[in-house]
Design goal:
The complex is a heterodimer of chains A (about 475) and B (about 280). By secondary structure, chain A is an alpha/beta fold. In chain A, about 35% of the residues lie in helices and about 15% in strands. Chain A has a 5-stranded parallel beta sheet with strand order 3-2-1-4-16. A 5-stranded parallel beta sheet of chain A has the order 6-14-7-8-9. In chain A, strands 10, 11, 12 and 13 form a 4-stranded antiparallel beta sheet that branches. In chain A, α2 (about 30-40) packs antiparallel against α8, α5 (about 70-80) crosses α8 and α13 packs across α14 (about 290-300). Chain B has about 280 residues and is an alpha/beta fold. Chain B is built from 9 helices and 17 strands. In chain B, β5 (about 50-55) and β6 form a beta hairpin. In chain B, α5 (about 165-175) packs parallel to α6. The longest helix of chain B is centred in the last third of the chain and has 12 residues, at about 260-270. The radius of gyration of chain B is 18 Å and the shape is globular. The two termini of chain B are about 25 Å apart. The chains are: A alpha/beta (about 475), B alpha/beta (about 280). Chains A and B meet through β5 and α13 of A and α1, α2, β8, β15 and α8 of B.
Chain lengths: ~475, ~280
């Protein structure tokens, strides 16, 4: 059999067209494209892709079913391990996980596993009426899950499939966490998120929105209400700023605020929707991660004439997915690598007028193994901007931990939890996702939610001893 | 969905709602606030809890119609529902026995003085309340505040009722009189709170202010509400809303409260052409 060296391209909206709308950029495979791509899979007996997947999806197994045109079988296979495949097929960094391990990838381009996962999930979505697993009889145990992002949803789904009664408490008014407030519509349509959360609900999971745990109830009060265990998946929801002059000027946003206004509150539809946003004429976005790419591309779609990305290291060190950097570049985002902001300049009324930055060069490697950027003396320069978005990462939000004094935190204020089970210092409380690891990926959060679900199940079925 | 059980109109363009939300009512403390979202298209706006009844399971909020969201809120009536009421948020007002406490409220900020004054009095403080508004018909909740105060002073800018002048003028008079005061607590328009702080600062009289910046999530996630306090950036939603008024950068707060004035104008224009159901005609 002749091997096709390259992945089947996925159709996308053209850059000049997509910057004018918030519709999804990547359009997904047609059935024939999926067939062609699935045919590239070598069906390895000892498949390295499976162990490279944080949730260990039987990848050759679901691809084999696509080849057989048994799409129901394919999605069933995926859902054995992953209850949110339409989302993961879109936002999972496959190039660093399953596709990196793909045998074909040693000589050619790896199989486009993510695109095939998305194809199977979208097939079910288009068909409607998803197949539900047979649920075991109720165990009579109740679990509270705090936060409805990827960690909470996967933990809740798994616990429900094991027969436990699960209630998710979400602080915002819409469930999904970062999937709805952070990741933009053009990368992850909110209808997809709603669909997959609906599926989790169909397993018997109750979702209560607008419940800020730590305020309306403490964890101990939840135990008093009859919950037998609690999983905390509240994410890394504390925006970081650079601590440079001018950061409180009007027109300076954290990426969290900029994206929440646009995605969750639909400010791009203002004034049809009530939440406004400052649409900059010239926008600077600081940072080199996926969130910075999302913010840059969002600024363009809101109508900015010019978007400048500012990143202190070089392109090679950027933590953003290559695909997202290319998307941003194709859409017209200008990149300033090896550049670091020094101060934000404002006018007398408190509005942003510009951003002063300094050029950097790469020096000795730092503790992350990447070359440390060092400022070049005298290289300061100013770009004229009216909106600045700080996308330099997120820290641990202290709201719930500060209301839970017996929950041990590490020195960065993340919750200390056992690596394999997610068990915290507090009796019958587990934690996972970004509030334990620091800002990471959707799939790693999902994987930790799954691991905790397994541990919680064991604890609930064996009695309280093993959980402490 | 949260049902409006009662609506009052205590002053022109000021609406008072009693809302059924038993879980929030059970937890609410003086000084805390809720985030309200009217419907699916609605903005999230923070509103201070002006009263709560744990037995009846209700909270009361008082709203001045000032922008698109508050206008839309003002059109709702008893029996209507709000899509979201989230809370109680923020750190409750710190209360201890300090002898005499002055509670100052301006405009719609008079209402949230009520639970704070009540709280201070319940733990044995002598409470002097000063409430003020532009003109007589805007003075609200006078009886309620009186019922939880040992002394009450009322001011109006135009002198149509009570003492002519500002709340801060009355406070100045009391402070100058040499009364021993342990704490001044102020809530109201930012300019009023700044004026209160200018009165108390020379006397090094401890002054707490309840800030009301723009917020989005109100759980510490977005940073929209950040304000400099003592040279440090604080998030009002989780670090406040009460801060030492002598440390607050009021100019910055005033500037940040004006970020969306232009958009507000645009929205009010389009609001005139929008039907009751939110659809553009």
């Amino acid at each position: 059999m002749k091997i096709i060296p390259k992945k089947v391209e996925m159709p996308r909206q053209a850059p000049e067209e997509r910057v004018t709308n918030f519709d999804e950029v990547a359009l997904g495979y047609s059935e024939e494209q999926a067939q062609q791509e699935a045919g590239r899979c070598l069906q390895c007996k000892k498949a390295p892709c499976i162990s490279a997947c944080p949730v260990e999806i039987d990848i050759p197994g679901f691809i084999a079913r696509i080849i057989d045109r048994d799409y129901q079988g394919a999605i069933r296979k995926i859902k054995e391990k992953n209850l949110l495949p339409a989302m993961c097929g879109r936002v999972c960094p496959q190039e660093g996980l399953c596709e990196k391990a793909c045998t074909l990838g040693k000589k050619y381009e790896p199989v486009a596993i993510g695109r095939l996962e998305r194809f199977a999930a979208d097939w079910e979505l288009q068909k409607g009426n998803p197949e539900k697993p047979r649920l075991p009889p109720s165990t009579g145990k109740c679990v509270a899950v705090i936060g409805s992002g990827p960690a909470g949803l996967s933990c809740a789904g798994d616990l429900a499939r094991l027969g436990h009664k699960v209630t998710i408490f979400e602080a915002l008014h819409t469930p999904g966490g970062v999937l709805v407030y952070g990741i933009p519509e053009f990368r992850l349509p909110k209808a997809i998120v709603r669909w997959e959360i609906e599926y989790i609900r169909s397993l018997g999971v109750e979702v209560k929105t607008g419940y800020v745990i730590g305020k309306i109830y403490t964890l101990d009060e939840l135990f008093c209400q009859g919950y037998d265990g609690i999983f905390i998946g509240i994410g890394a929801g504390l925006p970081k700023f650079m601590d440079i002059p001018g950061e409180n000027l009007n027109g300076v946003y954290s990426a969290n605020e900029f994206l929440t206004r646009t995605n969750l509150m639909k400010a791009y539809l203002f004034p049809e929707y009530d939440t406004p946003i400052k649409i900059g004429r010239r926008v600077a976005v600081i940072g080199g991660g996926n969130v910075a790419m999302d913010a840059s591309r969002t600024a363009l779609r809101l109508g900015a004439e010019r978007v400048s990305n500012i990143y202190r290291r070089s392109r090679k060190e950027m933590p953003a997915r290559v695909e997202e950097v290319e998307n941003a570049r194709d859409e017209g985002v200008e990149f300033n690598f090896l550049t670091n902001p020094v101060q934000i300049l404002g006018n007398s009324e408190g509005w942003v007028m510009g951003i002063e930055s300094i050029r950097m060069e790469l020096g000795e490697p730092d503790e992350s193994g990447r070359q440390r950027p060092v400022p070049i003396r005298g290289s300061e320069f100013t770009i004229e901007v009216d909106v600045v978005v700080m996308a330099i990462g997120a820290g641990a939000n202290p709201l719930l931990p500060s209301a839970t004094p017996d929950l041990k935190l590490n020195r960065w204020s993340y919750i200390i939890a056992d690596e394999t089970t997610g068990k915290t210092s507090k009796e019958a409380v587990w934690a996972g996702g970004d509030i334990v690891s620091g800002a990471a990926t959707v799939i790693s959060a999902m994987a930790s939610g799954r691991r905790s679900a397994r541990a919680i199940h064991q604890y609930l079925m064996e009695g309280s001893k093993s959980g402490s | 969905m949260y049902k409006i059980l009662n609506k009052q109109n205590p002053a022109p363009d000021v609406k008072e709602f009693m809302i059924s939300c038993p879980e929030i009512a059970r937890k609410a403390q003086p000084g805390q606030f809720v985030v309200v979202r009217i419907d699916e298209r609605g903005e999230r706006i923070p509103l201070t809890i002006a009263d709560y009844d744990r037995d009846k399971g209700t909270i009361t909020i008082v709203v001045q119609e000032a922008g698109q969201t508050t206008y839309r809120l003002g059109r709702l009536n008893s029996g209507d529902t709000l899509t979201d009421v989230i809370g109680p948020l923020g750190i409750p007002t710190h209360m201890e026995s300090m002898g005499t406490v002055v509670c100052a409220g301006g405009g719609v900020g008079i209402a949230p003085v009520y639970p704070v004054a009540r709280g201070f009095r319940q733990i044995g403080n002598r409470v002097i309340s000063i409430i003020g508004a532009r003109t007589k018909e805007l003075v609200i909740w006078e009886k309620k505040i009186k019922s939880v105060s040992d002394e009450l002073y009322v001011t109006t800018d135009d002198g149509s009722y009570g003492q002519k002048g500002f709340v801060s003028d009355e406070l100045q008079r009391i402070v100058k009189g040499g009364r021993e005061i342990g704490l001044v607590f102020a809530v109201g328009p930012t300019l009023m709170m700044r004026a209160v702080c200018e009165v108390t600062k020379p006397y090094k009289l401890r002054t707490m202010v309840s800030l009301n910046p723009i917020m989005v999530d109100a759980t510490g996630m977005c940073g929209a509400c950040r304000v400099s306090v003592g040279g440090k950036t604080r998030f009002v939603c989780v670090d406040g809303p009460d801060f030492d008024g002598h440390q607050v950068d009021f100019d910055q707060l005033l500037s940040r409260q004006r970020i969306y004035l232009e958009e507000e104008k645009k929205a009010s224009k389009s609001y005139d052409s929008v039907s009751e159901h939110g659809k553009v005609k």
